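WARN retry 2 of 3 for item q-0093 after timeout on previous attempt; input resubmitted unchanged.
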Amino acid sequence: MTAGRDMSGVRTILVTGAAGGLGHRLCRILSARGYQVYGLVRPEDDCRRLELPKEQVYVGYVQDYSCVARAMDGIDVVVHCAALLPDSSDAPPAAFHQVNVDGTASVVRAAIAHQTKYFFAMSTISVVDHVTQTIGPRELLQYVSATDDAYLSSKVAAERLLFSVRPGYSGELMILRLAYVYGPGNFAVWRRPFQFLEAGKLRLINNGSALLPLIHADDIGRFIVRSLTQRPSRGYDGIHILASPQVPTLRMVFDFVADALGLAHAGSVPLWAAHLGAAVASAVPRRFRKGRLEMLTPARVQQFSRGYDLSAVLDRSVLDDLHMTDYRDGFREMLADYVTSERTGKAFVR
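OK item q-0093 returned
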């Protein structure tokens, strides 16, 4: 290995969703550390960001077991990133289940059959309620109750599935619950707020005082490398909460973004008005919710008025050892990429 001793004898890694925002960054980090990285991408994916030789890229869908099994041949480690993300708002609920649940079942089934040594599954901190209560290790399996959020429901179902099959897996199965992922190419949860900020339409609830936990995509890669080169942390029953110990507020993040892009700062809306707006928007049929109405839901009002408290479940000894990205450096890098790769017409930067 080029950096650090690989205690697990790991050489080959398969990254599903390798062309995605997180997937391509993990491929880059893992390749740079000397691993032989393979990627699984969909036929329709844009692979220009993926820095892998063509012979190390498999094309197919995670729901297709035969395709996944071919890609899994000779693999030591699986990094399962493939997912239908929350920004796919036009996708029907069945599509989220098909990709995020059936796809996870296909990938872990193949990992069990091929006896891979490690399985890293990407999940989200939102599968439990970190907003209205302080979650400790004992509450990490107290999943949120029924929700009309198809993405969130699918991620809860995917975690339950992984726990159900774990007894039959001979390797180390680790669920990485991610905070808000950012970094170059990782625009899924940021694209719409950036567009509203540019248009002067972004409003922060209660002046953006809520805490916003973040995780840079590259720091996720560094956590995986650490787990492979040192004795892996057991986490909490195999669950690892990945978020930077540096937790800015919404106002701090979006003021920094506005200043970096030469834009006016976001406005503010009182909590009562946000609740009222969400109630009205919820009464409108989904197909008619456009623009800010699409984002204005009771769940989001709760999230972005109260923030997330992860303090009781962050493994500070591990995270501090990673020397995680300062959010200002990370956003500066992401915004430079966003301007050049995402925008057409009027540029953000003046």
